[in-house]
Amino acid sequence: MNAGPNLSRLARTIAGIALLAVCAWAVVAYLANPPGTGSRSTLVSLDSSLPQAVALGAIAVALIASLALSRPRWRSVGAAVLLWGGLAGLLVAGYASWSDLGAVGRRTLAALAPGYAVSDGSGAVTIARDSAGHFAVTGSVDGAPTRFMIDTGASSVVLTSADAANAGIATDTLDYSRPVQTANGVGWAAPVTIDRLSIGDLTLQNLPALVARPGALDTSLIGMNALNQLSGFSVSGNTMTLTR
């Protein structure tokens, strides 16, 4: 009776069990210590190097178990080491560059869809310059979709009469007593307070604004009183980034 095949199958079985055990431990440890929470479980103690450690540890356990319980052909062993080592390197490199790849993807999406606010999940929003050279974006005022142009030359947020009405503002009862400079010259606007203005993941509350008279303004403006409530904004090439 040839015990070789049986030993080989046993080696593969043990290697698979070891690999599954390490992965199961990793899942339990990950759930016990969610990233970014700062909490540490009394059962498991991990740090930010978990993904690399799990990948390399699992591969090492599988290889050692296979070698210990089988009679390997060393050429095959060398090929396997190169293969799994390469995969481990790709895992580590991919994890290390994940944030950079995400940033490239967000910039690409913003460039392909001008007017679309691309959020990165951490409070930063990217907007691409449109064909006219403006930073225009679709946001919302009190839940109503609103098309804005970001204008650093405007001191205040200014809504068109139509956008204000869509947001539930009674434009016919406003006091249009505030002079404003528009592309059509000096106009008159009414002061209001916006409960909630949103662009992507950014939301500003209780924001002073102006409502232009009907026909005085083509596009609602986001001015400096809104931008100054952010932690920062910057322009790089054809993209603008707003940071909460």
TrEMBL record:
| The keyword Phosphoprotein is assigned to this record | no
What GO molecular functions are on record for this protein? aspartic-type endopeptidase activity
**What are the entry keywords?**
Hydrolase, Membrane, Protease, Transmembrane, Transmembrane helix
What top-level branch of life does the organism fall under? Bacteria
InterPro entries per the UniProt record, alphabetical? Aspartic_peptidase_AS, Clan_AA_Asp_peptidase_C, Peptidase_aspartic_dom_sf, Retropepsin-like_bacterial
Q: Where are the transmembrane segments?
A: 12-32, 52-70, 77-98
Which GO terms are recorded in the biological process aspect for this UniProt protein? Answer: proteolysis
Q: Does the keyword Protease apply?
A: yes
Spell out the PROSITE patterns in the cross-references. Answer: ASP_PROTEASE
Instruction: Note the Pfam families from the entry.
Output: gag-asp_proteas
Q: State the name under which the record lists this protein.
A: Aspartyl protease family protein
The organism is Pseudoxanthobacter soli DSM 19599
